[in-house]
Amino acid sequence: MGHGIAQVSAQAGHATVVREVSADALAKGLGMIRKFLEAGVAKGKITQEAADRTLGNLEGTTELRDLAECDLVIEAVSENLALKRDLIGNIDRVCQPEALFASNTSSLSITELATFTKRPDRFLGLHFFNPVQLMKLVEVVKTLATSDAALKAATDWCRSIGKTVVTVGDSTGFVVNRLLVPYMLDAVRVFEQGLASRDDIDNAMKLGCGYPMGPLFLGDYVGLDTTHAIAQIMFEEFKEPRFAPPPLLRRMVLAGRHGRKTGRGFYDWSTNPPS
Ligand code: CAA
């Protein structure tokens, strides 16, 4: 999701530094932004000038120290606590003390992530949705330690990039995933139990409820590995069976069928549209 967050920030006129782990990953992320902007120009949604301005506001780097002058740092690495602990601790050391820190985690505790820094009063969650460029919501997650000033600054920034904010407490999954993840897991269970075909499950929810994507397609779109990781974290937190990843989901992740990102999940993503 990092490239989407960087894009909406740059698109709103903020000078934006994108830090990636390698030159390859950086080129891939910036390439995705370029592709989205080109599609926007082709569809007449944005002007060529706006696209050029957005790219001009972006600076790519593989060095953490290039984040030193940033006012707001948003972490969007995988849902892995150890990885986030190392990264957030390192960013805390290089960034100016007054900088605001945010995590885009979907499921880990913001309160716990804040303990990896010396600035828990300036640490909060900014939870974006896929695709970041099109989804209008950000969940702004406030911990017991987050200051009112930090909450206001983060909320103002989200509004400056055109997002609608809902403010939520630091509970695993916040509001959206608390409701969305059990629904997606139930769809996998319905499929696993042979109650209906993939297409019938997805069409049922699209046409029966007016959802823009069916749940199995959405799982592929978000990433089945990500969905599995979120479910696992929610299950560990709440110990409720509805959050437990179904066996089929686990096996698909183990088999590398992560959905769109690996080319195969419930759908085959090598075709356009996915089949
Ligand atoms: N540049 C600018 N605008 C663009 C664009 C581009 N490159 N591509 C599309 N758009 C615009 C379109 O022109 C269109 O605008 P209008 O409504 O003004 O016409 C709008 O964006 C929608 O685009 P499309 O018509 O091409 O696409 P769509 O109607 O098929 O919708 C979608 C695509 C928004 C992704 C929709 O399918 C959707 O909402 N899906 C559900 C996504 C969802 O549930 N996300 C949450 C996942 S959970 C998560 O992320 C959190 C987590 O922790 C796991």
What does this structure look like?
The protein has 275 residues and is an alpha/beta fold. 48% of the residues lie in helices and 12% in strands. The protein has eleven helices and seven strands. It has helices at 2-11, 23-42, 48-56, 81-94, 110-114, 148-160, 176-192, 198-209, 215-222, 224-238, 247-254, and strands spanning 16-19, 58-61, 72-75, 100-103, 123-127, 137-142, 164-169. The protein has a five-stranded mixed sheet, sandwiched between helices. The protein is globular and about 55 Å long. It binds acetoacetyl-coenzyme A. The site of acetoacetyl-coenzyme A (CAA) has 18 residues, from helix 2, helix 7 and helix 9.
Provide the descriptors you would attach to this structure in a database record.
binds acetoacetyl-coenzyme A; two-stranded parallel sheet; five-stranded mixed beta sheet; 275 residues; alpha/beta; 48% helix
